[in-house]
Amino acid sequence: MSTPAKCLPSSTAMGATFDTELIEEIGLKLLAEEAKIKAASILLAPTCNIQRSPLGGRSFESFSEDPYLSGMIAAAYVKGVQAGGIATAIKHFVGNDKENDRMAYDSIMSERALREIYLMPFMLAEKFAQPWSFMTAYNRVNGTHVSENPYIIRDILRKEWGSDALVMSDWFGVYSIDHAINAGLDLEMPGTNKWRTLDLMNRSIQSRKITARTVKERARKVLELTKRCAQEAPEVLDGDGVERTRESEADSTLMQSLAAQAIVLLKNDGALLPLRPKEQGLKKIAIVGGNAKARVLSGGGSAALKPSYFISPYDGIVKAIHDIDSSIEVTYSEGARTYRTTPTLDYDLVTEDGKPGWTGSWFAHESDESMTPLKEPLKTQYVDETRIFVSTSYPKDITKRWTLRLDGQLKPRDRDMLFEFGLIASGRAKLFVDDQLVIDNWTKQRRGEFFFGCGTEEEYGRFSLKAGVSHKVHIEFCNVRAPADGDPNEAVMDSNPGVQLGGAEVRDPDELLDSALQLAREADVVIAVVGLNAEWESEGYDRTTLALPGRTDELVAKVRAANPKTVVVTQSGSSIAMPWADDVPAIVHSWYSGNATGAALGDVLTGKVNPSGRLSLTFPKKLEDVPSHGHFHSEHGKVQYGEDLFVGYKHYHHRGISPLFHFGYGLSYTSFEYSNLELSEPTYSSGDLSVTATVTVTNTGSVAGAEVVQLYVSLPTTSELTHPPLMLKAFAKLRDLSPGTSATAALKLDKYAVSYWEERIARWVVESGEYIIRVGRSSAPEDLKLQTKLVLKKGFEWNGV
């Protein structure tokens, strides 16, 4: 029963804007204000971990595979939110780059990789924005959990960087009292009922594992942040504490603009896009694909929310097309199903009085250890969702073991159909339809990954629904899980209980595919909307493949064969495989775009918005090309960061591997020409360096557009150390360039652009010598046509930020 809220595009989408001004505006006008109306003083974001692999379950939550882009976008995010009086908790500090075994695995990396790659986004955010708090990662780094790692918290963050931020744990990410307290972890989350209880803290002081002085130091940081939040945004504390949602035309416009500016045009052979109905003679457009009408707006886990509104790709595209020509016929077929679990039934079930959802009745048991519920409910309430993550929202006076009964009616259908239900439980559950047992996920279970690793696999059952009949749906749920093969434990789910009911009409896959192909043959243009969703990319587990689900690839290939004018729209938070990429004429990658998904997509496909997004991560041709392939998984609790400094595009350049699409890549509906690359003379002051690169960009096409100018640095070849061959060190977005006009991009470089970490002396080093500066529109060699040398006649060392 969460309060509806704005769902912004995924972090990878924000990174794809390459626009720090826009992200800062989003932080101030949307994120800070949304936090206030949710009565929240601290926003638990941004996430700026590095995308070692697109398989990482939370990859969509981080901005990029590149530390500089990640750090600058994170700094803009933090600046915007905190300018609005709301604290940020930048996370997950540090090395939380995968999900499986996340509480235990040890990220083993060199000191150079730690400094130059994984700490760098946090360091840049600290330098340019000073987050008010940091959240530690669950995992270990080089042998020690970060929440109790004095080297990372005390020595680097506080002493070296000079940060005065509060340091909190992730939820249940504390594993000790004395180690965490002494390392500098100020706040255990959530609550005080885990490690830092009064009894255990006093015993730790009495046994001299910690001192009262150190406890007061930790407590002081909590009070300092509390005071700061109260002073910066007193309206949060002065309100009634009730969460709200609020929409305005200005907010919706900004949301739509952000989503559109993140969309990346990957391919556009024959200028198939933008769609021009009159010029192209379009009379009928077919929309196919499992994501076209699905509610795909975000990745899963902590990023999931209930949107205050949502525009599907189908609705957005249809509106955009009909705004141009209302006579165009638009047809639709799902073609191939893409969901991992059956779609939830939030808008299919109704209560007795007709509201979407069902009625929940909470029952205490005869005792905390009893499995027998009392006859009378402790509480009855309206529930408006069929994926119910209870967490700690059960009634206050309920017993340790409890039962939740859910009752609703499946809305009458327009025809008879065979319907398949799916039931997942973190606990145990049974599904009854018209008093008939359809699914037993109670007696014996299969352990699964859902509900943060506490849920079962989905169990299925079929029922014949009759046209015009309102069928009764009843679930019996208990928060005690049942035995499973290899696991007889009947543990009480006291922190992550939940139940999910989904369902869909049973359809023959071949018939579903054939229906899409028939529409494709009849249409002038086909738009295939395919991709992943919050069940494939989620907190709590990692992906196992880059492939799209089910028969998606087959659908795209066959639709393209049926109609050469096929536009493929992909949705995912990180990179995916596209075995059909060479064959289709147009590809648009839209990430997870939040509330305004369809509206933004419609704007780009019809040319109302000229796409300017650039890939914030490399799209490989195959999984084996990914830098961390072969050493991404936790092996006996250890994750070897064997690619070292060669993360993302740096690996592809170093090894001479051609990816499917390069980091920083993206097309436009116009064309740009670069010229006149010049460097200012380097100046030195106070242990820093200043150089400005300028380049002229001319719009040589026929429509206005925006261009992202990217600058890459190569360190001197005279260095004794190995360095990545190419590193992004500056970027600028030139907006609204009209046809035939030029603009100058000024790209400023400082000590960060020319430094590396010298492990022997634990300092940053700038060497004298020749640095190669390359400027272009992506990291692809063919796009970096302008090049010059930066000569530094003297080097220096530095520390801090």
Name its key features:
alpha+beta, globular, 23% helix, single chain, TIM Barrel, Glyco_hydro_3_C_sf, 4 domains, beta-glucosidase activity, Rossmann fold, glycosidase, 801 residues, Jelly Rolls, six-stranded mixed beta sheet, seven-stranded antiparallel beta sheet
Major sheet size, sense and barrel closure: 7 strands, antiparallel
Spatial shape: globular
Estimate nothing, just give the exact number of structural domains: 4
Q: Assign a percent range to the helix content.
A: 10-25%
**Binned strand content:** 25-35%
CATH architecture field of the largest domain: 3-Layer(aba) Sandwich
What fold name stands as the CATH topology of the largest domain? Rossmann fold
Secondary structure tally, helices: 18
Beginning-to-end CA distance, first to last residue: 44 Å
Mean pLDDT: 96
Q: Which residue ranges are poorly predicted, with pLDDT under 50 across at least 5 consecutive positions? A: none
Rg from C-alpha positions?
27 Å
In CATH terms, the superfamily of the largest domain is Glycoside hydrolase family 3 C-terminal domain
What's the total count of β strands?
36
Structural class: alpha+beta
- Reading off the top of the CATH hierarchy, the class of the largest domain is best stated as Alpha Beta
Catalytic activity: Hydrolysis of terminal, non-reducing beta-D-glucosyl residues with release of beta-D-glucose
EC number: 3.2.1.21
Keywords: Glycosidase, Hydrolase
Pfam families: Fn3-like, Glyco_hydro_3, Glyco_hydro_3_C, PA14
